[in-house]
């Protein structure tokens, strides 16, 4: 009478992995006092009538630990790249030499480090909320299956599996946050 219920755990895992990937991307954009090409990933340049990632208007290099350079391919785009960096909130003042935009990375002071740890905590909380929303989606599909004849024992087994996945991802988020915060606070 009742059909065999099978929760798509692969889909749930894929979506939770997506939330973790988004968190890692956001963490990479937080600067830690060391130069990194990934810190420019969220910067969008107004290029040719649309917002374009900075790595699509020039080559991003890290020639030394405290310097990022962008070799802008189109000379007319240099001003737009500078403006995008200044408006990005990274706290970096670009210097231009022809088509090369240089970004000297200043030493972080204690106040800025503390502020960055708070931002990292916000990013982690957004990821936790995303994971909890996915947990809710999984639990909702289990409840629908219960209404369609899923046994109470099977319901408990599936709910326990979804909760275990959720706990695992929340633990990963907490670990990633702890690592990022210690990296930021490292002088």
TrEMBL record:
Q: Which domain of life is it from?
A: Bacteria
Q: Which family does it belong to?
A: Belongs to the RRF family.
Query: Any keyword Protein biosynthesis?
Result: yes
Pfam assignment, any one: RRF
SUPFAM superfamilies this protein is in?
Ribosome recycling factor, RRF
Concerning CDD domains, the annotation shows: RRF
**What gene is this protein a product of?**
frr
Name the NCBIfam families on file: frr
Q: Where is the Ribosome recycling factor domain?
A: 23-185
Q: What is this protein called?
A: Ribosome-recycling factor
Extract the PANTHER family matched here.
MITOCHONDRIAL RIBOSOME RECYCLING FACTOR PSEUDO 1, RIBOSOME RECYCLING FACTOR
The keyword Protein biosynthesis is assigned to this record: yes
Q: What is its main location?
A: cytoplasm
> Keyword set for this entry?
Cytoplasm, Protein biosynthesis
Its job: Responsible for the release of ribosomes from messenger RNA at the termination of protein biosynthesis. May increase the efficiency of translation by recycling ribosomes from one round of translation to another.
Places the protein is found: Cytoplasm
């Amino acid at each position: 009478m009742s059909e065999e219920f099978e929760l798509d755990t692969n889909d749930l895992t894929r979506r939770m992995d997506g939330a973790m990937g988004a968190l890692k991307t956001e963490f990479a954009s937080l600067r830690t006092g060391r130069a990194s090409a990934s810190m420019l990933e969220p910067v969008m340049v107004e290029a040719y009538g649309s917002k374009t990632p900075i790595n699509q208007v020039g080559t991003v290099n890290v020639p030394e630990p405290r310097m990022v350079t962008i070799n802008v391919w189109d000379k007319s785009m240099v001003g737009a790249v500078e403006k995008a960096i200044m408006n990005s909130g990274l706290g970096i003042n670009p210097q231009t030499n022809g088509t090369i935009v240089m970004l000297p990375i200043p030493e972080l002071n204690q106040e800025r480090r503390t502020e960055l740890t708070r931002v990292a905590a916000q990013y982690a909380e957004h990821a936790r909320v995303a994971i909890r929303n996915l947990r809710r989606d999984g639990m909702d599909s289990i409840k629908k299956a219960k209404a369609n004849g899923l046994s109470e024992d099977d319901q408990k087994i599936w709910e326990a599996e979804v909760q275990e996945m959720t706990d695992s991802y929340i633990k990963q988020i907490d670990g990633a946050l702890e690592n990022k915060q210690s990296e930021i606070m490292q002088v």
